[in-house]
């Protein structure tokens, strides 16, 4: 490109940019700030302007709650599609969930820059609050398939959250819908897994294990089911990576100290890593 052509492109670009600016100046209706409610959003961090450490902490956790809400809604959509036998749309939705998981995993890197001294500069402002009390996290755990009634207890002080979580606990999970889809595809699932109390904790089933083993032994015939199985493993794998980075980040900042709200801190986070969502899918890998 010669200098004349280059100058003409620059002039054209400047002209186009001016048109955009003029259009923006004369536009009517909602602005970007109005649409996203930015004034209200940014006001949710009052009094933190003088402490960048607390601003980082609050922003990280607030955005996680937003992303977990998106993941929860999308998981519901994937679950409902599987109950209807629509594996294609379900897989597309699950791919989106996985992309959000990557954001969630990487977000801990920002908080990991915080030192113990940084954290102590605002820890007393947290009061008795604790991530253990996150309704968004618990909703996501429940809908993905990891259910334990005892985890309703921390939410008893928030009746609306407690009521919502109790309802979600009693609904079928993503894994329950996957098993129904498998049964619909002709890979028989034990009746006690198709018709059960959804609020009860899911435990290993030999019949479900045998069903997944059938899939893995003939992936050409059962490719959709095989694909679904691997995506479920991917989601649990990424969820565990998120838990692990959470554990290591908290350990880096407070060591073995008791967490806010009386939580056991890193001890609970370490135990959470050993809690599996889809036991048969992990067990079957060892016999192939």
Tell me what the structure shows.
- This protein has 288 residues and is mainly α.
- The protein has a single domain (51-287), classed as Methane Monooxygenase Hydroxylase, Chain G, domain 1 (Up-down Bundle), CATH 1.20.58.480.
- 65% of the residues lie in helices and 0% in strands.
- It is built from 14 helices and no strands.
- The protein has helices at 3-26, 32-36, 38-42, 52-83, 87-111, 116-120, 135-144, 159-169, 174-184, 191-194, 206-217, 223-254, 266-272, 279-283.
- Helix 4 runs antiparallel to helix 5, helix 4 runs parallel beside helix 7 (135-144) and helix 7 runs parallel beside helix 8.
- The termini are far apart.
Percentage of residues in DSSP E strands: under 5%
- Mean pLDDT across all residues, rounded? 88
CATH class: Mainly Alpha
SSE topology string:
HHHHHHHHHHHHHH
**In CATH terms, what is the fold-level topology?**
Methane Monooxygenase Hydroxylase, Chain G, domain 1
Number of domains: 1
Low-pLDDT regions: none
Strand runs, count: 0
Radius of gyration: 24 Å
Characterize the largest beta sheet: strand count, sense, and whether it forms a barrel: none
Structure classification: mainly alpha
What is the helix fraction of residues, given as a range?
A: 55-70%
Report how far the terminal alpha carbons are from each other.
59 Å
Total number of helices: 14
The rough form would be described as globular
At a glance:
The protein has helices at 3-26, 32-36, 38-42, 52-83, 87-111, 116-120, 135-144, 159-169, 174-184, 191-194, 206-217, 223-254, 266-272, 279-283.
């Amino acid at each position: 490109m010669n200098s004349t052509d280059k100058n003409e492109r620059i002039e054209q670009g400047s002209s186009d940019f001016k048109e955009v600016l003029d259009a923006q100046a004369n536009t009517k209706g909602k602005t970007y700030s109005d649409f996203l409610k930015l004034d209200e959003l940014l006001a949710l961090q009052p009094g933190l302007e003088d402490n960048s450490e607390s601003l980082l902490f609050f922003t990280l956790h607030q955005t996680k709650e937003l992303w977990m809400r998106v993941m929860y809604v999308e998981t519901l959509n994937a679950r409902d599609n599987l109950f209807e036998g629509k594996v294609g749309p379900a897989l597309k939705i699950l791919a989106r969930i996985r992309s959000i998981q990557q954001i969630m995993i990487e977000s801990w890197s920002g908080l990991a820059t915080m030192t113990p001294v940084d954290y102590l500069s605002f820890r007393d402002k947290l009061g008795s609050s604790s991530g253990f009390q996150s309704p968004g996290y618990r909703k996501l755990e429940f809908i993905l398939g990891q259910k334990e009634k005892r985890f309703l207890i921390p939410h008893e002080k928030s009746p609306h959250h407690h009521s919502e979580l109790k309802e979600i606990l009693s609904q079928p999970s993503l894994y329950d819908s996957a098993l129904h889809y498998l049964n619909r595809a002709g890979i028989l699932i034990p009746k006690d897994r198709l018709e059960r109390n959804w609020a009860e904790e899911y435990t290993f089933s030999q019949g479900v294990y045998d069903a997944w083993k059938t899939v893995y032994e003939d992936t050409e015939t059962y490719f959709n089911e095989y694909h679904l199985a691997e995506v479920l493993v991917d989601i649990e794998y990424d969820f565990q990576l998120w838990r692990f980075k959470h554990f290591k980040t908290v350990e880096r900042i407070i060591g073995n100290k008791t967490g806010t709200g009386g939580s056991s801190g890193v001890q609970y986070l370490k135990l959470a890593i050993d809690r599996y969502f889809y036991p048969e899918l992990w067990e079957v890998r060892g016999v192939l």
